[in-house]
Amino acid sequence: MSIPRTVLSRLLPFAAYIVLLALDGTLASALEWLHLNPKFSYVIRISAVIALLLYFWRDYIELTTKPHVSDYLYASIAGAIVFIIWIFPYPAWLGGGDTSTFNPYAGESPLAAMWWASVRLMGAAMVVPLMEELFWRSYVMRWFDKADFLTVSPERISGYAYVGSACLFALEHHLWLAGLFAGLVYGELYKTYKNLWVPIAAHAVTNALLGFWVLSTSQWSYW
Predict the structure, then answer these.
(1) Which of 212, 190, 207 is nearest to 199 (CA)?
(2) Can you tell me the distance from the alpha carbon of 191 to that of 154, in angstroms, rounded to the nearest whole number?
(3) Which residue of 6, 16, 210, 223 has the lowest C-beta tally within 10 Å?
(4) Each residue's pLDDT tens digit, 53-78
């Protein structure tokens, strides 16, 4: 049985990101063998996601309606709260400790380091929120209620779908407790404002603040 294009368009960008993330070490080693900067593995990962998002762009009907400008204010506040929760010093059993790292300064000149930091920030704040919200909120959260997920209005998403999708979102992240909180916040924004751009904006604010915090504190384990 073939997978519908409505599912593929939201699944493949996310799947490409996860697969390339899992292969990051292998890809970095291959780049080094080719005498290329291993940090290009992140560029490859983000570029693959961007290419897939652009290819399927006409399929994202949930992005055709823009929210009210004031809704972005609430999205920004929510995103900032998630950021604060994210940087708590969690013990290891709650997802604390080191994760994969990306240090733009390692082995780089100041100019090159600025470029790598910018690439990472743009990927985290502009590409990842769009890709993840299309997958987790628009697809997975509504799919819990109905296979034909596009027919499910955001405000009618069940509590089971809301919590269940947030739990799965938490499992995607090393900081699973913070991930659970983020999933609940972004899901509630989607249900309340009935527009996917609102959780996308909140997610973007979270990731942007986290990126600037990482750069200012050198807490590379969060990258």
Answers:
(1) 190
(2) 5
(3) 6
(4) 999 999 999 999 999 999 999 999 99
DSSP-assigned states of every residue in the chain: -PPPHHHHHHHHHHHHHHHHHHTHHHHHHHHHHTTS-TTHHHHHHHHHHHHHHHHTGGG-GGGSSPPPHHHHHHHHHHHHHHHHHHTS---GGGT-S------TTTT--HHHHHHHHHHHHHIIIIIHHHHHHIIIIIIIIHHTT-SSGGGS-GGG--HHHHHHHHHHHHHTSSSHHHHHHHHHHHHHHHHHH--THHHHHHHHHHHHHHHHHHHHHT-GGG-
Quickly state the pLDDT bin for 101 (edges 50, 70, 90). Answer: confident
Instruction: Say how far apart CA 128 and CA 17 lie, in whole Å.
Output: 9
Distant-in-sequence, close-in-space partners of 74: CB < 8 Å, separation ≥ 6: 189, 193, 198
**Integer Cα distance of 179 and 172 in angstroms:** 8
Cβ(208)–Cβ(124) below 8 Å: yes
